[in-house]
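ok so heres the complex, two chains, lmk if somethin looks off
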Amino acid sequence: MRRSVIGGAKRSSLFLLNQAHRSLLSPSPPPLHHHLGSSPSSSATALLLLLRRLSSSSASSPPPPNMSNPVTVQSINPKVLQCEYAVRGEIVNLAQRLQEELKANPGSLPFDEILYCNIGNPQSLGQLPITFFREVLALCDHPTILDKAETQGLFSADSIERAWQILDQIPGRATGAYSHSQGIKGLRDTIAAGIEARDGFPANPNDIFLTDGASPAVHMMMQLLISSEKDGILCPIPQYPLYSASIALHGGSLIPYYLDEETGWGLEVSELKKQLEEARSKGISVRALVVINPGNPTGQVLAEENQRDIVEFCKKEGLVLLADEVYQENIYVPEKKFHSFKKVARSMGYGDNDLCLVSFQSVSKGYHGECGKRGGYMEITGFSPEVREQIYKVASVNLCSNISGQILASLVMSPPKVGDESYESYSAEKDGILESLARRAKTLEDAFNSLEGITCNKAEGAMYLFPRIRLPEKAIKAAEAAKTAPDLFYCRHLLNATGVVVVPGSGFGQVRTCFKMLS
Amino acid sequence: MAPKGLDYELLNENVKKVQYAVRGELYLRASELQKEGKKIIFTNVGNPHALGQKPLTFPRQVVALCQAPFLLDDPNVGLMFPADAIARAKHYLSLTSGGLGAYSDSRGIPGVRKEVADFLLRRDGYPSDPELIFLTDGASKGVMQILSTIIRGPSDGILVPVPQYPLYSAAISLFGGTLVPYYLEETANWGLDVNDLRNAVSQAKSKGITVKAMVIINPGNPTGQCLSEANLSEILRFCYQEGLVLLGDEVYQQNIYQDERPFISSKKVLMDMGPPYSKEVQLVSFHTVSKGYWGECGQRGGYFEMTNIPSKTVDEIYKVASISLSPNVPAQIFMGLMVNPLKPGDISYEQFIRESKGVLESLRRRARIMTDGFNSCRNVVCNFTEGAMYSFPQIRLPPKAIEAAKSAGKVADVFYCLKLLEATGISTVPGSGFGQKEGVFHLRTTILPAEEDMPAIMESFKKFNDEFMEQYEDHKGYSRM
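and the predicted structre for the whole thing:
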């Protein structure tokens, strides 16, 4: 399944990108668009208004049922209709059709392959998994071979030892059995120890819920927090659209707070305060604050001081802090470091009585990139026993998350150490991946900044670039005529010309008139 | 102190309403006792591997190879893995878009969905469209996805059998809908009467509820009954008349312990009925790798197949699936292996058949042992487990026992099951967790404990039960039946 070296592929597609980009721009220089200020993005406001309008109209009695078609779009849950998820939306459907066309008629399009840059899915683009992790997982999948002599020759000694250790933590060594609904206890112990080693503050295994990726954990929290559209959740704009989709699905209100592109996507507490107060004045009960650190799609890594301000803000306003920290191991600039919100809160002297905090982690990102495994966890602190009971209850309806993903989460939080047989090779693999990601971040950033009409902030972390495309008037008019958002219009052209799949910035929310794409 | 975001009072009320007894009070008490050192036999959930059933060898070999593809490059791999496992691993890896570690299509790997479609064609004799098959992280996730699409609010009703597997009641609570019960008749082998269905729907209508869907669990959980073809036709005709979407939970289709009523899928019956039914009735069917003779609960692998669902609705369901990106890839491979098993002549075929038959034949024997065992107990009456993995004996509690339960602040069957747990270590789920007629009590246990342990377990149960009945009976009669 090896693909060509990423760098090479990107270079040729950048060339095509350049060509496509030029063809879209008029010969005259693009007019400057003033974009910042206090006016909220049209798309985020529109979403909010739509939510409110639709939820108030649902108070009246539903339309008479269609006797022969109970499940039509007229009669399904309107919240399903309202939610959007651009990461796998229209552009991807179009890309898949083009891919089929390439298969059926090779050479019929101006490119040879579709390059999916819409989603953080590293192993689909040639990144290799960490060998040690896969050794342990394979042994846990088929423990019979642990007794065989040949196994010593095929697997590293420490992977065999780790597999035994893990199997001993599973009742009956049965990796095919439903586990405890929070996840296997021994694995939670390992993860808690990993969190403590990372932060310098203790973690309780009973605070940990292992889930099929971080996304289901986010859904669980939204379900708990949202009773109606009167419940608001503060979300960064731009944001990873899981949040807007989940809030819509659960019938709540997304309260946007705007990150400042001019200051490297900075997060100002004054902005948080402003949005909070505005929401409250409209009768919304704001329940939680979502912070994505490192940011998606923006890549910024918060400064510790910033984080302290955020913690103070949540404590003062009684908000649950939902800390999406899935990119904690993707940091590309030496001057920034990851500090978990738990660590920051604890180092301020704040404990369980001061702050409700949920931290989300995943096996899908970092250097491990194991998206397809669906592994992750949330660590919940500051919650009363009654609330924990409710969280446990909801988790138990699905019985448990997949065991292989649970094992992987524990490996990610406690990888090989100095002195372990696999440490050298593990380290080399990890560093190789992270260094390559850092190089690619820089290469792409520079390339975008060299293109006409495009500026791009540095990606300090995560896996994305979010360049700003200043589209000329003619392009915007053409988009309007095609009844398409201007950035989607641009991205479609890009796809048709080059085979590169990106997500239009409107999928993440953006300030009006500046259009982004996600790469 | 100022109210905080996750104060109990501010929680989503729908969450608070949810009940899921399978991992509720009894299970939590059993776990406590286990920590204190008591030996517990967990029969609260259909979790075969936890009770000693071994995984099938071949699928584990294939998935292990897929996890660690470097093995495939090693010249010695043939010493450890049979050639057909190696070939299959290569086959599945080629279907992925970057191995097990890449998100797949949100509906699941297209090649695996094609294998599911081929399986359905072989099983039912009717072609199946892979585009209408969605793989999910377990069948439960699929059920939740569909119910959340259907339910708009409290005036949407879902017909659910009583007794039922409480995923349905929990999901309906979570999504703010209304559960409309239809009672299965214990004395008629847990059969259902279409007139009861009709009454349930009109009663619901009179309360302003629009019934939108009907759930059937076939074979039943906890009741085990297998529906006949006539039954299924009746149900489908009813759904056609009332405009209901039929949700066919068929996860136990490979667990059949009698020969009078083999499994027949809702889809086959629907297609056999021909138009207008076959073209109009909306159907969603669910299956899993967790049951059958595979018992791979921990993998979280399942699928649903949609029939006669409008394409715009399918698009919406796809959209929601895409928010979770993709189901876990290893489980998708388990699903592929389950629907596309080994054939005579394959190297691993003999072993596979031996292992599979071993499990199924033992389950059949255990179904009999348990039913007979329960029927030999005082005040216990038990229908035969025709299918699935459970026994659901009726416990006729004497009035004094019911009073004692009340004094202890417990529902009567919870009281009984707690006493059973403390006396014997057998951890069951009280019938109230599944729903039952007023004043009639049951418990659900699985038929999964190892066959060699069964006689001792039944002995232990009988001793406890007969002593309990001795203690609480006043020799004047049983609890009201």
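quick notes: Chain A touches chain B through 105 residues (CB under 8 Å). thats all i got rn
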